[in-house]
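Usage

Read records sequentially. Each one opens with the input sequence:
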Amino acid sequence: MRGYYDEIAALRDMSDPNLSASGQADRQRAARVAASERLLAARPVLPKGARSRDDVLAGLSASSADEIARMQHEQAKVRTLLDNGRPLGEIIAAADSTRALAIADLVETLPQVLESNSGAEIVAEVRGLVFDRLADLGVEAAESVRDVEQRNAPDIAWHRAMSEAAAGSDASIAAWQDVYRADPDGYGVAHDGRDGQVDEWLRRFDAAVDA
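and closes with the structure output:
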């Protein structure tokens, strides 16, 4: 990951007086693709049994008419609790599996999420709490995935961060939080001396390519 960031910094500063502006851009695009491919190739191998938490939550979501009705009933209760000042984390900590899954489905539409500039991070955090609550309750699918995560935390965290960085300008905050928890020393190496201006340049560069 550190090597990838160094490559991106060199890519920003790439210059050849013999190339036109379009030729320079073409060379930078090719170098960007090559750097991303090298980063993807360097990812740790995911352990057998590794599944994304989102996939597990999707598989556990309500499907029958009866289940959907119970979920909607729980969502109405959760909204009432929130309106009366109960913290969402407290509600999740005391939830049964039906209420927990109702919260995972509901969270994207909560006013505090819709009105926040960090809505995606809030949703990820809340769904993480829901997932852990389901595992604590003994829901097999969640319990099994969390066990795999705990035994292979560094590999899983770095695989996600490297995948996201290769696809965009950087990994998400949630991915970096996972890396920090699983491998704080590696996190420090990846971030030591990082230049935010390089990240911003890459965001603009990718946006111009996609335009």
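Summary fields computed downstream for this record:
- The radius of gyration is 21 Å.
- Residues 74 and 146 are 25 Å apart (CA to CA).
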